[in-house]
Amino acid sequence: MPVGFAGTYIPTAYDGDRHIYLVGGFLIDGETNQRSIIERVDRFNIDTQQFDHVGALAIVTSTEIFFHNNLIYVVGAEGLHTFNVLSRETLEFLKFDTLVPICSCFDGADNIYIMSKDTFTRFTLSTKQSVQLSMGPKPNKNQVIFYDGHRGLIFSFGNRSKSHQYSISDNEWTTHNAEIDRESVIDGGCLVRD
């Protein structure tokens, strides 16, 4: 990785074509252990194996990102923002009044699901409408959720080494059979299907 592209806690999103976007993150000083926020938007070209700088965020933090129609959706504590990869402009899409996201996932079409300490919410991008959904087990700060469009489920990992699944059609959570090592999920992951 070239100088200037390093960092830690960097959210990433694949554009479905040839780029993986890296947004925000932190630089950690090795001597003082102090964190400084990175405001960058960079991308990695999977064909050429090269990084390039795209722009800078006009917001200071992000927790998770999703790519859709040349926009990077940034889910953060202040709300939902977009970064346009063509115009390089950051806009506030939706302000959160009381919601503090712990984790989120995108269905690849029109909905972002956000889990907070006390709520599980679906935000529809095209209408900017939100719907409160059935809340599953209380999440912790290491919670992650993944959308599985093939089965119409959302998987949740990080709660007392148990995994759970949410049925979109039934609006219901159930405990999943698999037990996982909670520490292995903290650094992220992805859903892979044959």
Q: What overall geometry do the principal axes of the alpha carbons give?
A: globular
Instruction: Count the beta strands.
Output: 18
Compute the separation of the termini in Å.
Answer: 30 Å
Content of β-strand: over 45%
Under CATH at level 1, the class of the domain at 12-140 stands as Mainly Beta
Low-pLDDT stretches: none
CATH architecture label name of the domain at 12-140: 6 Propeller
Order of helices and strands: EEEEEEEEEEEEEEEEEE
By secondary-structure content and strand pairing, the structural class works out as mainly beta
Helicity range: under 10%
Q: Please, what is the average pLDDT?
A: 82
CATH topology name of the domain at 12-140, in short, is Neuraminidase
> CATH homologous superfamily name of the domain at 12-140?
Kelch-type beta propeller
Topology:
Blueprint: E1 12-14, E2 19-23, E3 26-28, E4 35-37, E5 40-45, E6 50-56, E7 64-68, E8 71-75, E9 79-84, E10 90-95, E11 101-106, E12 111-116, E13 120-124, E14 129-133, E15 144-148, E16 153-159, E17 162-167, E18 172-179
Antiparallel strand pairs: 1-2, 2-5, 3-4, 5-6, 7-8, 8-9, 9-10, 11-12, 12-13, 13-14, 15-16, 16-17, 17-18
Describe the structure concisely for a colleague.
The chain is mainly beta and 194 residues long. The chain has a domain at 12-140: 6 Propeller (Neuraminidase).
